[in-house]
TrEMBL record, chain A:
Purpose: IGPS catalyzes the conversion of PRFAR and glutamine to IGP, AICAR and glutamate. The HisH subunit catalyzes the hydrolysis of glutamine to glutamate and ammonia as part of the synthesis of IGP and AICAR. The resulting ammonia molecule is channeled to the active site of HisF.
One matching Pfam family: GATase
Transmembrane segments: none
Location of this chain's protein in the cell: Cytoplasm
Gene: hisH
Domain Glutamine amidotransferase: 4-191
Quaternary structure (record): Heterodimer of HisH and HisF.
Name used for this protein in its record: Imidazole glycerol phosphate synthase subunit HisH
Protein EC: 4.3.2.10, 3.5.1.2
GO CC, any one term: cytoplasm
Automatic annotation (TrEMBL), chain B:
Role of this protein: IGPS catalyzes the conversion of PRFAR and glutamine to IGP, AICAR and glutamate. The HisF subunit catalyzes the cyclization activity that produces IGP and AICAR from PRFAR using the ammonia provided by the HisH subunit.
Organism: Pontibacter virosus
Catalytic-site annotation from UniProt: 11, 130
Keywords, alphabetical: Amino-acid biosynthesis, Cytoplasm, Histidine biosynthesis, Lyase
Protein name (Swiss-Prot/TrEMBL): Imidazole glycerol phosphate synthase subunit HisF
Complex formation: Heterodimer of HisH and HisF.
Cross-referenced CDD domains: HisF
Catalytic activity line of the entry: 5-[(5-phospho-1-deoxy-D-ribulos-1-ylimino)methylamino]-1-(5-phospho-beta-D-ribosyl)imidazole-4-carboxamide + L-glutamine = D-erythro-1-(imidazol-4-yl)glycerol 3-phosphate + 5-amino-1-(5-phospho-beta-D-ribosyl)imidazole-4-carboxamide + L-glutamate + H(+)
Gene Ontology CC terms: cytoplasm
Lyase in keyword set: yes
Similarity comment: Belongs to the HisA/HisF family.
Pfam family, one: His_biosynth
């Protein structure tokens, strides 16, 4: 299988690469249009700030390519948020693949939402073998509200989208590459979609 | 529910764990990767690695070690020690660290906190604060591994670094560190209530009850300990069972 991780200088690319390596899977890092287009599966990690990540994508013309992809695609953390329409972070227009907003947590709780929290209402083959209430590692200050495309949710304190699916685009707000054995299982599930 | 985090801290010198660690079931407890894997299996929520070497040459070894750790463990980890520039952080994050912890460099150059947050995001910038209480001064921030008193009152400094972009505070009480008499609940609570970001309590853990107090009374979001775990005076699975029974949200 030809697995490509989108490398656009705004991702925790190394951690995803190592997590796949632990599963015995070799992936290619690339920001090249043709390489990504030809891949069997694409993983789109991301950490950092939305507007600078979008600038990095635009600089590589990936804002045009990514919405056209048809193979199974997995956005992680900021990589999930970037698939949406608009983010309150830096008032940023995103890739507009999934018609959803990205909002800042308005809560008395600590922000960023950092640490292990529970995955609930799991409804996708992405979560095969994952128990309701399993913990996953999060670190983020912005979130995607619940929607028709929500395939798992987490509460902080109100429920938000822990994961999304829209056509071939899957996405997780948590970090499967840092979520212990459960996270590895979710990555493995994506590879078999 | 978001769980409280239990964080073992490993001191690293020349690529090896420093404090004499007693483990029967680890082949080489001086090997940070072996030890990290063991802690991850035990249910540690995160790990902190502090590089206590001094020279630049040795620091290169540390970056290689960070890469090796990232390759082998599947939980988040923070690295710190001797970080003084954006370029240092870039190397460590590229190697696979999730967060970096800066301490004296933030005191010398507060702008560094802002630069790091802008460049890499607040979520990976932990500011470590060493604090000490005396009757004359109240809680003050100390620099250079706790050897130099600064002008900063601890709560004010915590608020300042959060304004600059810190995403987390690692608060170590020098009065409590090594005493096993419990965390400094008053200052931990004061800092936790003064800032909007998570606070890690550090220094003084001796019993399971101490962790419960840090979370319940002092509102810490995470608690860190070193020798208590390394010498197996307290095992993480037992600690988590205890906290759960106390009604504290933990991952176990």
């Amino acid at each position: 299988m030809d697995l490509v991780i989108v490398d656009y200088k705004a991702g925790n690319v190394q951690s995803v690469l190592f997590a796949l390596e632990r599963l015995g899977v070799q992936a290619t890092l690339s920001c090249d249009f043709e390489t990504i287009k030809a891949a069997d599966k694409v993983i789109f990690p991301g950490v950092g700030e939305a507007s600078s990540a979008m600038a990095q994508l635009r600089a590589r013309n990936l804002d045009k390519l990514l919405p056209t992809l048809e193979q199974p695609f997995f956005g992680v953390c900021l990589g999930m948020q970037l698939l949406c329409e608009h983010s309150e972070e830096g008032d940023t227009d995103l890739l507009s693949i999934i018609p959803l907003p990205v909002k800042r947590f308005e809560t008395d709780l600590k922000v960023p939402h950092m640490g292990w929290n529970q995955l609930e209402k799991l409804q996708s083959p992405l979560f095969a073998g994952i128990a309701e209430g399993e913990h996953a590692y999060y670190v983020h200050s912005y979130y995607v509200p619940l929607s028709d495309y929500t395939i798992a949710q987490t509460s902080y304190p109100d429920p938000f989208s822990a994961a999304l699916q829209y056509k071939n685009f899957y996405a997780a707000q948590f970090h499967p590459e840092k979520s212990g054995p459960a996270g590895s299982q979710i990555l493995k599930n994506f590879l078999t979609l | 529910m978001l769980t409280k985090r239990i964080i073992p801290c490993l001191d690293i010198k020349n690529g090896r764990t420093v404090k004499g660690v007693r483990f029967e079931n680890i082949r080489d407890a001086g090997d940070p990767v072996e030890l990290a894997k063991w802690y991850a299996e035990q249910g540690a929520d995160e790990l902190v690695f502090l590089d206590i070497t001094a020279t630049n040459e040795e620091r290169k070894t540390f970056a290689e070690l960070v890469r090796d750790i990232a390759r082998h463990i599947d939980i988040p980890f923070t690295v710190g020690g001797g970080i003084s520039a954006v370029a240092d952080v870039e190397v460590l994050l590229m190697a696979g660290a999730d967060k970096v912890s800066i301490n004296s460099a933030a005191i010398r150059n507060p702008q560094l906190v802002e630069d790091l947050a802008k460049r890499f995001g607040s979520q990976c910038v932990t500011v470590a604060i060493d604090t000490k209480y005396t009757e004359a001064t109240g809680w003050k921030v100390y620099a250079r591994a706790g050897t130099v008193e600064t002008e900063h009152a601890t709560v004010d400094w915590a608020k300042k670094v959060v304004e600059l972009g810190a995403g987390e505070i690692l608060l170590t009480s020098m009065n409590n560190d090594g005493t096993k008499a419990g965390f400094a609940l008053d200052i931990t609570k004061a800092v936790s209530e003064a800032v909007s970001v998570p606070v890690i309590a550090s220094g003084g853990a001796g019993t399971m009850q101490h962790f419960a107090e840090a979370f319940e009374s002092a509102h810490a979001d995470a608690a860190l300990a070193a020798s208590l775990f390394h010498f197996r005076e307290l095992d993480i699975p037992d600690l988590k069972r205890f906290l759960k029974a106390e009604g504290i949200a933990v991952r176990c």
